[in-house]
Amino acid sequence: MTIIEQAGRALYGERWHVELADALDVSDRTLRRLAAGGRVPQGILSDLHALCEARGCELAEVMRLLKQAA
User: Fold this and answer.
1) Is the dihedral of CA 33, 38, 39, 40 positive or negative?
2) For the chain, which ranges sit under pLDDT 70?
């Protein structure tokens, strides 16, 4: 599994292709090529990192709220 696929599934679940393509501002065709093992440009890797970091912060906040509620 490529980093693109791993990140896509973690961010958006099983139907991750279209949502990740939109978030990265690339075509679905480009995303599928990258997910198949194509060379990922540094800019896309940076954008993917930012998406994952933002989602991580969102999840950390949810975890904090759940801990408070328990």
Assistant:
1) positive
2) none
Q: Helices 16-24 and 3-12: crossing angle, nearest 10°?
A: 100
Question: What is each CA distance from 67 to 4, 59, 63, in whole angstroms?
Answer: 31, 12, 6
CA distance 40 to 46: 10
**8 SS3 class:** helix
Q: What is the pTM of this model?
A: 0.86
Q: C-alpha angle with apex 12: 6 to 13, nearest 5 degrees?
A: 75
pLDDT in tens, 2-20: 999 999 999 999 999 999 9
CA distance 61 to 30: 33
